[in-house]
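@channel sequence for tomorrow's demo:
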Amino acid sequence: MDNVGLRLKQLRTRQRLSQRQLARNSGISNATISLIEHGRTDPSMGLLKRILDSMGVSFADFFASDTRQPEKYFFTQSELREIGSGPISYRQVGANLSESNLQILHERYQPRADTGQSMLSHEAEEGGIILQGRLEITVADQVRTLSAGDAYHFNSRLPHRFRNTGSEDCVLVSACTPPSF
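structure tokens (generated this afternoon):
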């Protein structure tokens, strides 16, 4: 996986922001920003989204490859790009989605993995199918635990959260349009 802290520091520097300015803009402590940038902690996806939103950057752009590649239509398992961190793996089909309307992810949640206490919300629509394990999904005021073969689909503007409350990894394939990561 690419170093999230290093990427964040490079982005912050390109935008001519100090750590304190970024902390103030995102509502996250300066100490937390520093820990992330120095690789001492991996932010939850919700926390990283808050930071990136404050800089006007999507997950797709944050993790996009810095160089242009010829258009690619097929991907081996080893070519899926890891854009997650910690106990949640998001393996994205395609490296650079800046010109794409669709994002496809192979996701893996370790036991007790959680997208964070802060509910996610973004301008998109998303859906997925659980392949293995169980995943608790909260959308607005509804909570449901899905098992292998179950699926979900919702407007991502609604606050949502994903948690593996089981004792085994949960694996799923999801799609989001437009890309949110």
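heads up for whoever presents: The CA atoms of residues 60 and 178 lie 10 Å apart.
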